[in-house]
Amino acid sequence: MSEYTKTVFQQLHKENYLIIVATGRHHLDALPIVESLGCPVYLVTSNGARIHSPTKELLYSFDIKNDAIKSVLDLDIDPEFTTVLFKEEVWQTNKENKKLNSFQTVINYPPEIVDFKFVEDLSAIKLFFTHDSHQKLVELRDRILVDHSDDFSHAFSLPFCLEFMDKSVDKSVAILKILEKENFTFEETLSFGDGFNDEKMLIATGKALIMENAVESLKSKLSHLEVISTNDNDGVAKYLSQKILKTAVPVVD
Predict the structure, then answer these.
(1) Strand pairing report for 152-158 and 161-166
(2) Which residues of 178-193 are buried (b: 16+ CB within 10 A; e: fewer)?
(3) What is the number of alpha carbons within 13 Å of residue 12 lying toward its C-beta?
């Protein structure tokens, strides 16, 4: 996040806007990032499986049960897939994946390489698969859902990231819990998203916008929504500055 983005969110806080950051990341991974905003926010992590208050108090948690995950791993998934279980303190994985490791700006949430056949407790916040081929992930998703469509919700947070949560878990469900606690409704909210794990949130909120860097299939599916500039170009901050704070956007030569 740029310094400009941080300034915009700090001003929103001063003007008493409620700010919710909702991510597929684990809370230990996400906390250092949101702390850099310099203002208090609610934090929804693991696509809705955890909610933390602005004071870092855990308000809600829900894990996938051991048996549900075991039944998926018993499908003898090809080892070419990187398989990850988001645990509370570590993420367990079948192999090292430098691409995944690069997403952590601070190693607050370390990986642990394991053989899942010998892990006694497979219960986890989230079950996650990654592969360079999106099509292979689609095929894996379809294979898993044949017998598990009633057990899991799922999303592609990125084309190479396939994530499974408990059926009751979604960003939109977690956000609604916060809105009810703070006496707001979805109709009063503004949301921004760029992944399929944002889809239900974008549909539910009063005003929703899609980032230009979102996958084309999401833009096509929600073609009625306005597309704004990319994350790299401070798209969210610029929109909020112009439309909500009514301030000028800085010009960069």
Answers:
(1) antiparallel
(2) bbeeeebeeeebebbb
(3) 25
pTM score: 0.85
Q: Which of 116, 54, 44 is nearest to 85 (CA)?
A: 116
In CATH, which of 3.40.50.2000, 3.30.559.30, 3.40.50.1240, 3.40.50.1000 is domain 3-61+170-243? 3.40.50.1000
pLDDT tens figures, 10-59: 999 999 999 999 999 889 889 988 999 999 999 999 999 999 999 999 99
At the topology level of CATH, where does 66-166 sit? 3.30.1240
What's the rounded Cα separation, in Å, for the pair 40 and 12? 11
Task: State phi, psi for 74 to the nearest 5 degrees.
Answer: -70, -5
Q: What's the confidence (pLDDT) of residue 105? A: 54
Specify burial of residue 226 (Cβ count, 10 A radius: 0-12, 13-18, 19+).
exposed
